[in-house]
Design a protein that fits this description.
Length: 337
C-alpha cells in the first residue's frame, strides 16, 4: 500500500510482505474496496485523479510474484525543508522545530538490518519509488543503489524519485544512467515566493534552474512537476500556470518532454482549497480557465462553509514560529482573509 493510506506496520520488511500485505493483495485482486484506500475513494468522488487510479494505470501490466515487483520506500525523514502541510514524521527540520527526536537532531532512519531485508526482497524488482524526507540527501539510498548495482538489478528497474529538487546531489544522481528508466517527480506547489513560503526555506528560482538542468541528463530520464495545490497556491495560480508553460517550451526546444501531475491537499483541512473563502474560490476558478489546472474547476465546491479563522490561525502560527512576514510571501492573503 502507498503512503496515502496512512497505514503503518512496525514489523520487519519480510513479515510485512509475507504476512501483513498478503490478505490485502488478495482483497484488491478480487476488486474489493479496503478501508485503507478511503482517501483515494473520496478524491475520486470529487472527480480528482487519486493515487489509486494513478498506480493502477501505471502497474496494470505488472504481474505478481513471490517477491515485490514494486517498492515505495521512505528510508528516513531527513529533509532540508519544512513544508507547511508536512510534519515531523516526514521532515527532520519539522521535527527539529517541533522538538521531536532530540537525541538524533530530528532525524529518523531505518537500521542496517532493515535495509538488508529490503535489499533481499529486491531481486525481482521492476518499479521503485523513492521518497523521504528528501531522497537525494538520504545516505541509505546510496547504500541501496550500491546493492542494486552489484546484483545487476538496476537495468530491470523503472525508478521514480519524489524530490523537492533544491539540489542536484552528484553522488545520488550519478546512479541514474544505470536504471532502465528514471522519472524525477519535482514537488512544486505555487509560483515564486508563495512556493518559498509553502516549502520553506525553498528557493523557487534555484528549483526552476535545477529543473532546467535536468534536460541535460540522459534520455532514460523524464521529468514531471507534481503539484499538491492548497489555499496558499490559489492567489497567484495564473502565474504558476504560465511558469509551467514556459518550462514546457524550454523542454520542447531541447526535444525533451516535461509532464505535470496535479492534485490538491486534503490535510491539514485548514489548507484544503475546498475550505477557502467563496470569493477566493471564484478568483481561483476564473484564473485557471484555459490553463493546465482547468480540470480542477469542476471539483471546487463554491458553497461549502468553513471557519476561515482556522486557516488564519494556522498560517499565523507558522509565521510566528519561523519569524516570517506573511505579506512578503503572500501579499494577497489579506485581500481574502
Amino acid at each position: 500500500m502507498c503512503c496515502a493510506t496512512g497505514e503503518r506496520f512496525h514489523d520487519t520488511p519480510k513479515v510485512v510482505w509475507q504476512d501483513r500485505l498478503a490478505p490485502v493483495r488478495k482483497l484488491l485482486s478480487e476488486n474489493q474496496k479496503i478501508a485503507a484506500c478511503s482517501s483515494c475513494y473520496h478524491q475520486e468522488e470529487q472527480k480528482v485523479i487519486s493515487f489509486r487510479q494513478l498506480y493502477n494505470k501505471q502497474f496494470e501490466k505488472v504481474s505478481t510474484g513471490k517477491l515485490p515487483r514494486h517498492l515505495d520506500l521512505d528510508l528516513s525523514n531527513f529533509c532540508n525543508l519544512k513544508c507547511i502541510m508536512c510534519d515531523y514524521t516526514r521532515s527532520s527540520t519539522w521535527a527539529k522545530e517541533s522538538g521531536k527526536f532530540k537525541d538524533t537532531k530530528g532525524v529518523t532512519e531505518i537500521n542496517e538490518s532493515t535495509l538488508d531485508q529490503i535489499c533481499e526482497l529486491s531481486h525481482d524488482l521492476q518499479h521503485l519509488t523513492l521518497q523521504g524526507g528528501e531522497p537525494s540527501m538520504i545516505p541509505q539510498y546510496v547504500t541501496y543503489f550500491d546493492y542494486l548495482k552489484k546484483n545487476k538489478i538496476m537495468p530491470n528497474v523503472h525508478l521514480v524519485v519524489v524530490t523537492n529538487l533544491t539540489n542536484l546531489k552528484e553522488k545520488f544522481y550519478s546512479y541514474m544512467p544505470e536504471f532502465k528508466s528514471v522519472n524525477i517527480s519535482v514537488s512544486v506547489d505555487a509560483y515564486g515566493e508563495a512556493n518559498n513560503f509553502i516549502r520553506y526555506p525553498s528557493n523557487f528560482e534555484q528549483v526552476t534552474k535545477n529543473i532546467k538542468e535536468l534536460v541535460n541528463q540522459r534520455n532514460n530520464m523524464s521529468v514531471k512537476v507534481h503539484s499538491a495545490l492548497q489555499i496558499l497556491s490559489m492567489f497567484n495560480i495564473k502565474d504558476f500556470a504560465d511558469w509551467f508553460v514556459d518550462l514546457e517550451r524550454f523542454y520542447q526546444s531541447k526535444k525533451r518532454y516535461i509532464g505535470q501531475y496535479i492534485q490538491h491537499v486534503h490535510e491539514p483541512e485548514e489548507l484544503c482549497i475546498m475550505n477557502a473563502p467563496t470569493n477566493l474560490k471564484h478568483h481561483f476558478v476564473d484564473q485557471i480557465r484555459n490553463t493546465g489546472f482547468s480540470a480542477l474547476a469542476d471539483s471546487i465546491n463554491l458553497d461549502n462553509e468553513y471557519d476561515y479563522s482556522r486557516t488564519v490561525n494556522y498560517v499565523r502560527k507558522i509565521c510566528d514560529v519561523r519569524r516570517l512576514q506573511l505579506e512578503k510571501y503572500l501579499p494577497a492573503f489579506s485581500n481574502f482573509y
